[in-house]
Amino acid sequence: xxxxxxxxxxxxxxxxxxxxxxxxxxxxxxxxxxxxxxxxxxxxxxxxxxxxxxxxxxxxxxxxxxxxxxxxxxxxxxxxxxxxxxxxxxxxxxxxxxxxxxxxxxxxxxxxxxxxxxxxxxxxxxxxxxxxxxxxxxxxxxxxxxxxxxxxxxxxxxxxxxxxxxxxxxxxxxxxxxxxxxxxxxxxxxxxxxxxxxxxxxxxxxxxxxxxxxxxxxxxxxxxxxxxxxxxxxxxxxxxxxxxxxxxxxxxxxxxxxxxxxxxxxxxxxxxxxxxxxxxxxxxxxxxxxxxxxxxxxxxxxxxxxxxxxxxxxxxxxxxxxxxxxxxxxxxxxxxxx
Amino acid sequence: xxxxxxxxxxxxxxxxxxxxxxxxxxxxxxxxxxxxxxxxxxxxxxxxxxxxxxxxxxxxxxxxxxxxxxxxxxxxxxxxxxxxxxxxxxxxxxxxxxxxxxxxxxxxxxxxxxxxxxxxxxxxxxxxxxxxxxxxxxxxxxxxxxxxxxxxxxxxxxxxxxxxxxxxxxxxxxxxxxxxxxxxxxxxxxxxxxxxxxxxxxxxxxxxxxxxxxxxxxxxxxxxxxxxxxxxxx
Amino acid sequence: xxxxxxxxxxxxxxxxxxxxxxxxxxxxxxxxxxxxxxxxxxxxxxxxxxxxxxxxxxxxxxxxxxxxxxxxxxxxxxxxxxxxxxxxxxxxxxxxxxxxxxxxxxxxxxxxxxxxxxxxxxxxxxxxxxxxxxxxxxxxxxxxxxxxxxxxxxxxxxxxxxxxxxxxxxxxxxxxxxxxxxxxxxxxxxxxxxxxxxxxxxxxxxxxxxxxxxxxxxxxxxxxxxxxxxxxxxxxxxxxxxxxxxxxxxxxxxxxxxxxxxxxxxxxxxxxxxxxxxxxxxxxxxxx
Lengths: 338, 234, 288
What we know:
heterotrimer, A: two-stranded antiparallel ribbon, two-stranded antiparallel sheet, 16 helices, 73% helix, C: mainly alpha, ABC transporter involved in vitamin B12 uptake, BtuC, two-stranded antiparallel ribbon, 2 strands, 3% strand, globular
């Protein structure tokens, strides 16, 4: 009689997965049912969803609390401009290439910043982002401090009609947003995910169990850098203009993202999703407040960290262990319900 | 008969969900030396940490000089008159020998112990008073730890694993000094792996097993076999 | 001669960076907390001095009489009310809470004082200098800043190693469990350390505000300079931190001389080089 069995899926999680697939299909069809403004809004949400999920993987699951991810957002943007301006390639092709370039660059960067422990790592990543910003400001071929623009001809190469270009950019955003969540989800369900959980629970013990912690951390850091750069490339393809201060803005690409993840629930798959939605809802109502809006977000993040470190999702899921996207295993008892 | 100095009743302690002590009762009279023996994991150190407030997740009563110690935070315990010499010494590595002792006397209760008195007891510490505590031998570190505990002039000194990791000759030296340390009406709870040595100096002993008190009384009231059985739970 | 002048000016600026760094280093040493809002607190102290001067007409240096105790009090309260609750819970809470604090301070300053840059007017001392030799003029304010840095480092060093308060700091840092059995309430020890850090922050803020313009968003940059000085000098060594600040200052001065765009970049690159070659810093604890 085997009365226990080990499972991942629950009725709720199967429902959530089905609903997610349906949602992605509906969103993919948005160019046929939504206005340009709707596409822009959903596209922007997808971009932030991607950044939030990726930062969450880095900080919440791998313990690499970076405040310098704007380095890769800006780097990706500049790579797209370089490829499009100097090689004349289709910008959509440039997006994955930007990711590849970032992956290569992130390896030596990781070798350096990984020498800093814990919280000093955070500031170290910030320094690297500053070096990127100042470095690109020195490159006169890319417009130096004042930046450069994508000529219309290049955009025409991508698609002849404006509507088609908007749709292509939107689909790319959707692919990156949904793809990032799926990537984090699948990664955490893999053996690497198991190792990450072990590291999070007890770094010393897992190291003695033969988990190659530095290699796993490096791998996650490089993957996240590549994906972040792809998001960055898309952001500046949409903006058509790039300049160092906007490309490497800590506020736009890191501060807001951190607030989304922390408020939604760090270290959970659901957290970044909730945080992104909440952020856009709040922005609708509070954006006019300008800097007060940022103060509210900051206070909210502090309150969450002190009162419910697992964020809003932690409050919802509570001790019931509710999970829409389960990455762990659960032991269930067959027969009588507890 | 007057009330004991310390009375513990139905003490239960927890680490997370795991219970480490089960309904432990204990009394200690003024000037008494109680040996606490038991195998690893029996709950001896946990009991001492409960008495000093370092383990906060506990129920029951700890009555000391008429006051319940359960609500008293760890940093006020020394001022009440209980000092702990922790397992593994736990000296402050960035403090010199003398600074370790001075910090032990930060809460200065009236009494005979002072820096000079500690140096009289352990003359070697006076020689090494400027050196970092990390450069001392194990036995010397234990002397600092004992001195640090005595500096507050406690009513009760808790000695956790007094001889653990020390050379036999050093253990003998320290035990030879024990009557001097425990004089003047100081009560001592001595946690010790070296059972026969502990029973040799104790007025009374308590043997613990898996978080419970198995046997207690005067050392000479029980046979060797009885104590061994309680120790191993056989 | 020109280069000697540049290096000397860089050394003097390094004093300011060391002041940014020592407060950061102190907090990390006592409670392993990296305060992301450290730079913003420096700028907030500058604005506090600005306000005090507006209200009372005091000289900027005299305003320290008010700014120092208020800053210390703020630090003490901040630690007790907020930061203590984030300790012992892993690396995320203290980092993210001070990060949130940083954003709140920046935007509060923006709301209150607008984005215009300000400066504290210290009168004649600001522009006066003396000539050490032909072509090498030393300004009184940079010299005063450097002297303050040396005094602060010396004072903290003395306090840390020769006072009961410093003994408590070290004990709590060494073993926060056993320290309680010495009668130390760790939470108030931490609060005292934060108060002391805020005293250094206030000195740094006022000196910064006399030397140069400041605006609400300058904090993160000061945090980074301070952090770089700490890492260059080696964790846990205050004199090393002073040296780290000086190295950073000289690197920036030399970079700026080559090309104005290279001022900050040169500093960062020296920092990254040292991190690559000598990650423990130039003067790690225990050497000096």
